[in-house]
Amino acid sequence: MIEKTHTSRSFLLTMLIFTVALLLIPAGSEAAAPQIQANKQYFDFAKRLYALEGNVVIVHQSRRLTTEKATTNMVEVWAEGGITFEQDDMKLSGNSGYANFLKNTVQITGAITFERNELRVTAEKVEFNWDTKLAVFTGDVTVKKGEETLTYETITYNVVNNEFQQNTEMK
Question: What's the pLDDT band for 19 if we cut at 50, 70, 90?
Fold first, then answer.
């Protein structure tokens, strides 16, 4: 009975701390807590993270992240088992990733595909910052726009201007 009471107290204390932390975030803040759906979710007390499994969907403002398995502290998300990040008319997908809602960044690695209108980019890694609207693709980058295909080692794409920046490194 003592162990059960201790577990209940730990759970209540954790939930109280989490609730107070959410109340301290301003209502219109970029750091507002994301909405989460998953087939299975639980709180890992040892790691102090939410563990999510099966059809995981995390929505933060206009951004949508889907994956098969993730952990989160409600500000950062670590995803594996395939990840897709969508915002407006763009879609990024890959094998695993990390998102930070306070820093407004997402990093995806492994078999990257970026799609937007007639543009398709493949790479080994991408880092996207939704404040600067810049996506930096690295590792065996292939850019296909219409009938034109070019390859690079590194390339930076400006989402607002729909243009690649001059600091690119061609293969």
Answer: very low
C-alpha distances in angstroms, 150 versus 121, 155, 156?
Answer: 10, 11, 14
Choose among 72, 86, 74: nearest CA to 116: 86
- Ordered DSSP codes for 6-27: HHHHHHHHHHHHHHHHHHHS-T
- Inform me whether the pLDDT recorded for 22 exceeds 50: no
Which two three-digit tokens encode residue 109?
């690695």
- pLDDT attached to residue 8: 53
Q: What is the DSSP annotation of 25-77? A: S-TT-TTPPPEEE-SEEEEETTTTEEEEEEEEEEEETTEEEEEEEEEE-SSEE
pTM exceeds cut of 0.85: no
Q: Phi first, then psi: give them for residue 11, nearest 5 degrees.
A: -60, -45
Phi-psi region of 88 (alpha: psi -120 to 50; beta: other; left: phi over 0): left
